Each structure stands twice: as structure tokens, then as C-alpha cells.
Amino acid sequence: MIDFNNKGFFKLKQAPEYAEKVTELLLTDEEIVDAYKTMRDGVVFTNKRIIAVNVQGITGSKVDYTSLPYKNIVAYSIETSGTFDLDSELEIYFSALGKVVFEFNGRSEILAISKIISQHVL
Fold first, then answer.
1. Does 94 fall in a domain?
2. Number of structural domains, the chain?
3. Closest CA to 81 of 7, 13, 18
4. What is the CATH number of the domain that holds 103?
5. Range of the domain at 109
6. pLDDT tens digit string along 33-57?
7. Domain assignment present for 2
8. What is the DSSP string of 57-74?
9. What pLDDT does residue 60 have?
């Protein structure tokens, strides 16, 4: 499983093409909302869960996928970007896992993601 305490993993930039990495994992009624990546790692938000992708090794042939279902979220917080501070942040508390923080650089669909989380949590 991915070490969610390592914040370096979560400096994410929007990259819709990154969603291709998880298409084989999706359920038939599951749709991709948005995708973000760092150098090799990334996060894909669907209408049912968050899929964190951790590419490992020198060649990148080994990949760790962590599925974080929205139904296990007990609380969350978002921080939107501002005029000069373009970063935004999503902090999620999962039952039995604890806190997971995603930091986004530049443009992100943080409000759309928040809405989807709310639909499953409330």
C-alpha cells in the first residue's frame, strides 16, 4: 500500500490522460471524474472511489494500486486555490486508514471532486 504520510507523492498536476492507467480496474458503471499525476505516480478520481497509483522500481513495470472507496470516508476538507496561491488541497479521513492528504499544483477540479465525495458521505 502507498505510504500516505509521504506528502511528496501528492504534488499533483491535472493530467486527464493518466486515467488510462486504471481503465482495467474500473467497474462497468464506474466513470472517471478527473486524473492527476506527479512524475510517474498519480491519482484518479472516479464516481465511486479514489485510485492512487504508485509506479515502483527503475523500469516502472511494478505498479501499486490503492483503491479508496468514498463509502469509507468519515470526514473531509478542501482548500481551494487563490489569486496568488494556485495550490489546492484535499484532506480526507478514512475509517480504519486515517488521514490522506492530496496537494494539487495549478488547475484542479477540487469543487467537483468535493461534490462527488459529499454525494457518498452525506
1. yes
2. 1
3. 13
4. 2.30.29.50
5. 7-121
6. 999 998 889 999 999 999 999 988 8
7. no
8. TTT--EEEEEEEEGGGEE
9. 79
